[in-house]
Amino acid sequence: MGILDSLENSPELKGMLGQLGAAVIPVVLGEVLGNGGQGGLSAIVAKLEQAGLGEQVRSWIGTGQNLPITAEQLQQVLGSDTVKQLAARFNIPVDQLSKVLAQQLPAAVDGASPGGKLPQTA
Questions:
Q1: Cα(54)–Cα(1) distance, integer angstroms
Q2: How confident is the model at residue 38 (pLDDT cuts 50, 70, 90)?
Q3: Which of 13, 46, 60, 110 has its CA 20 to 30 A from that of 2?
Q4: Which conformational region is residue 89 in: left (phi greater than 0), alpha (psi within -120 to 50 degrees), or beta?
Q5: Helices in 11-93 by DSSP H: which ranges?
Q6: How confident is the model over 57-102, as pLDDT tens digits?
Q7: From CA 98, how far away is CA 70, in angstroms rounded?
Q8: Which of 93, 90, 86, 110 is nearest to 7 (CA)?
């Protein structure tokens, strides 16, 4: 099972997406976490830690409860240009994309780090 597979079937995700559609956000997360312009999971984790969000990231990778991140924090880390490009590419309003990504990124990182460790290929 890929890290994004469980998100596609998440009732929470489906409920909050509304017009976005349940298939779009896993693709966008794939761009952010995968081989997109952000450099993959390890690069995203490093950027978040450098931005002072290490406590949140450690909670996602660890086995406890995931701490939240705001849409604004995520947009600062990814860069507003990157978020705007992703939003334009998938025809999603920037504010909605940032909000949903901020809500779903902790679960995606958590799912990609079984046993509290990032995969070697992340």
A1: 27
A2: low
A3: 46
A4: alpha
A5: 11-17, 24-33, 41-48, 54-61, 71-78, 80-90
A6: 999 988 889 999 999 998 898 888 888 888 888 788 888 888 888 8
A7: 8
A8: 110
* Phi/psi at 112 (5° precision): -90, 0
| pTM for the structure as a whole | 0.70
* Assigned token pair, 85: 């490009």
Side chain identity at 96, as an amino acid letter?
A: Q
Instruction: Give the up-direction half-sphere exposure of residue 92: CA atoms within 13 A in the CB hemisphere.
Output: 26
Structure tokens at 48: 């978040």
**Distance of alpha carbon 46 from alpha carbon 54, whole angstroms:** 9
In single-letter form, the type of residue at position 122 comes to A
- Report the first-to-last Cα separation within the chain, whole angstroms: 15
Question: How many angstroms separate the CA atoms of 82 and 54, rounded?
Answer: 21
